[in-house]
Inverse folding.
């Protein structure tokens, strides 16, 4: 009896895994297809839009510092991509979250309440 | 008996803290905040099975508080607390004589609850529901790390349950 019960639990776990992997993959593919040329990085601080950076016409890569009452984050802007290279927060999660290139994904700096999202033209 | 209880709570808290602090030093494998092993959860599970809900709650509370003091920042406290409380509630519901499910399953569910708590708290703080894109990744990591820590707890409990704790 015990082994059949175990099998049910294993089945539940596998189903949960498959469902979430599928959801993640579907979203990834969906966001890849959202690319409509124009790319903007939207920086939000504490829920309000702070700055909108055009990523589609960047000649020389440059750094942009976002400084708020919670601290600073240094953004590295290149043509079609944006990342955080340095910040004075404790975890440095925002730096480790890597580079954004397509809409639908975001970088978060929780201690500074800052979010970077990517939008493509056509969206508001 | 009172001293014994005190010693056991202190011992378990110390072990959980060591695991927590060591884990903080490990480099992140996946670039998503919140994806981690959750080694300290092994102790919470063991405590729950061996010394009961109340004392396990005390161990968890002390570990979160002291862990923040040693290795975190004030901003990590609310995330640890949100995740910890949810995970603890799930464990309390699932570890009882009426629900006889394996410990690794309890652990996986509580890991998902933990991640859900942290994600929910993050969404509240930055006012960005878009953070939900990380939900699938957090569920997957919760299941994998939860099963792992749950099995670790199972084997430890197997050895420890011969010792009378109360």
């Amino acid at each position: 009896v015990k082994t059949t019960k175990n099998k049910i639990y294993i089945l539940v776990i596998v189903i949960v895994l498959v469902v979430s992997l599928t959801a993640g993959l579907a979203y990834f593919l969906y966001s890849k297809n959202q690319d409509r040329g124009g790319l903007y990085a939207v920086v939000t601080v504490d829920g309000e839009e702070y700055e909108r950076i055009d990523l589609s016409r960047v000649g020389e890569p440059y750094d942009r510092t976002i400084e708020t009452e919670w601290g600073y984050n240094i953004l590295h802007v290149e043509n079609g991509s944006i990342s955080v290279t340095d910040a004075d927060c404790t975890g440095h999660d925002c730096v480790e979250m890597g580079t954004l290139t397509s809409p639908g994904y975001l970088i978060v700096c929780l201690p500074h309440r800052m979010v970077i999202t990517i939008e493509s033209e056509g969206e508001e | 008996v009172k001293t014994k209880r005190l010693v056991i709570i202190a011992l378990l808290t110390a072990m959980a803290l060591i695991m927590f602090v060591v884990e903080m030093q490990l480099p992140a494998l996946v670039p998503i905040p919140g994806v981690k092993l959750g080694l300290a959860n092994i102790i919470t599970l063991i405590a729950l099975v061996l010394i009961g809900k109340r004392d396990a709650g005390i161990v968890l509370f002390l570990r979160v508080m002291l862990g923040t003091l040693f290795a975190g920042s004030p901003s990590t406290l609310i995330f640890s607390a949100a995740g910890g409380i949810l995970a603890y509630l799930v464990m309390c519901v699932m570890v009882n004589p009426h629900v006889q499910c394996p410990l690794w399953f309890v652990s996986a569910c509580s890991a998902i609850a933990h991640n859900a708590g942290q994600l929910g708290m993050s969404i509240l703080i930055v006012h960005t529901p878009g953070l939900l894109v990380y939900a699938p990744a957090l569920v997957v990591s919760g299941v994998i790390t939860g099963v792992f820590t749950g099995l670790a707890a199972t084997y430890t409990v197997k050895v420890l349950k011969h010792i009378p704790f109360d």
User: Anything to note?
Assistant: The first strand of chain A starts at residue 39 and ends at 45.
